[in-house]
Write a structure and sequence with these properties.
- This protein is mainly alpha-helical.
- The strands form two sheets. A five-stranded parallel beta sheet has the order 3-2-1-4-5.
- The longest helix has 22 residues.
- The chain is globular, with a radius of gyration of 24 Å.
- About 0% of the residues have low confidence.
């Protein structure tokens, strides 16, 4: 007699549920028994879009806390006035340029956010007119706003239309072998285009400013180190893969202890700055592209880490300062009464697209068929619809990934089908699949 035949239905239901949970804890279906299922680098890349170095995180946090201490010793805790803030901005731009000791053309990527344009204003104030560029396509706020600015101010912006550029898998493999920012991105197309136009160049970038000037509301962070880890994991599911892993497996990919016990930097901020910013987003210099990072200088980091939580919530203080800069450059801020970044972003989407975030046409060939919400940056879905070379790249990677046997083919097909249907999660997961395949190809995992 089978045991199942004498068990009450409720007990059988509980056992079935327990079996499913145990099965999921042992190995997710799509990587079951594959050699990569136990590779921590592979799991980190899927869960967090990065391969972490705990020692590098500890070193960066230590340096950041030193910056904060030095600022407080020299300047004290009082906030800067707007003129003092502008003087500091110009000073760190000068410092970042001087640190490179390079006689190269200076480039700056123009975006809709509030990191690059203040750098442009600061460069103008010291007599430097950078060569400007932006990438994207219709429906990307960065791209659309830059076109308006270019028409109004005759800036000579180089527009890199991702729906028309030639996407090369070999090019991405070359870059992925040495960059921190591994997720498939059109930034390499920028380097190729600007190097072709100007030769080796110095790129001034706004990296790190947003997380420094925009503190996290403490009420939204779970308490303690474990709470910080849970919050960080939830907010950094870049490829939307975490839902297929056991929660405790995801958390095990993060450090067991905080990089520092210094109360000057909260546990969550240590994770955000030491891991996400330093090891996932930070750009990497190449032979063609040197980097100047004004917002990563000692005084800028020190000032903002010493600033109050209230000043940093929603970038309140920074955006208040930005509104005092050149009104022609920040025309999109005119008449806006909103104070926080989230409120301002929503107001600008409504202002530019009169759509309040509803889908708009992103297709150059079939405007009625292909719709997507307006994006701030590059849209994988829109590029796939419009660019034949990018479609070829995606199909080639999917075939290669199937051949590796890393994922079950039904799983990759499901992700791809969700992607082409316009699903946001499908777009994120497909980016993860493409990134993992290229990382395997170049030996990063």
């Amino acid at each position: 007699m089978k045991l199942s035949s004498v068990l009450p239905p409720k007990v059988k239901g509980v056992l079935r549920k327990a079996f499913k949970i145990a099965h999921r804890l042992l190995a997710p279906d799509f990587v079951r028994l594959h050699k990569y299922s136990a590779d921590k680098r592979f799991l980190q890349l899927l869960a967090f879009a990065a391969i972490f170095d705990h020692e590098a995180a500890r070193e960066w946090v230590r340096w950041a806390l030193e910056c904060r201490t030095k600022w407080l010793c020299k300047q004290g805790p009082l906030p800067l006035t707007n003129p003092e803030m502008k003087n500091l901005l110009v000073a760190v731009v000068r410092e970042a340029l001087a640190a490179q000791h390079l006689d190269r053309p200076i480039m700056l990527g123009l975006s809709s956010r509030f990191d690059a344009r203040p750098l442009m204003v600061a460069l103008w104030s010291i007599g430097i007119r950078p060569n400007l560029y932006t990438f994207g396509q219709i429906g990307n706020l960065d791209y659309d706003l830059a076109r308006i600015l270019d028409r109004r101010l005759d800036l000579g912006v180089v527009f890199i239309d991702t729906s028309e550029e030639d996407w090369s898998l070999e090019l991405f493999e070359e870059v992925t072998s040495k960059t921190l920012d591994m997720p498939l991105s059109p930034r390499i197309l920028v380097e190729r285009t600007m190097a072709r136009l100007h030769g080796p160049f110095l790129d001034v970038q706004g990296h790190l400013n947003r997380p420094l000037t925009g503190g996290t509301d403490p009420d939204t962070i779970e308490p303690g180190w474990d709470g910080a880890r849970r919050t960080f994991a939830r907010r950094n599911d870049w490829f939307s893969f975490q839902h297929v892993f056991p929660r405790r497996l995801v958390l095990s990919l993060l450090p067991e202890k905080p990089p520092s016990q210094d109360p000057g930097l909260s546990h969550y901020r240590q994770l955000d700055l030491g891991y996400r910013q330093r090891q996932r987003i930070r750009p990497t210099a190449t032979s063609a592209q040197a980097l100047a990072l004004p917002y990563e200088t000692e005084r800028w980091v020190g000032h903002w880490l010493a600033a109050s939580d209230f000043e940093k919530q929603g970038q309140r203080r920074w955006l208040g300062f930005v509104k005092t800069l050149d009104t022609k450059v920040f025309f999109d801020m005119a008449s806006l009464t909103e104070e926080t970044r989230q409120e301002i972003d929503a107001a600008r989407i409504a202002k530019f697209y009169n759509a309040c975030g509803r889908p708009i046409s992103v297709s150059k060939t079939d405007p009625q068929k292909v719709l997507a919400p307006p994006h701030g940056h590059f849209s994988l879905f829109a590029c796939y619809q419009n660019n034949q070379s990018f479609r070829k790249l995606v199909h080639e990677v999917i075939r290669r990934l199937d051949g590796r046997g890393v994922f079950d083919r039904s799983f990759t097909r499901s992700v791809f089908d969700n992607f082409v249907s316009g699903s946001w999660r499908g777009q994120q997961m497909l980016t993860g699949l493409l990134t993992v395949d290229v990382a395997i190809e170049v030996g990063r995992i």
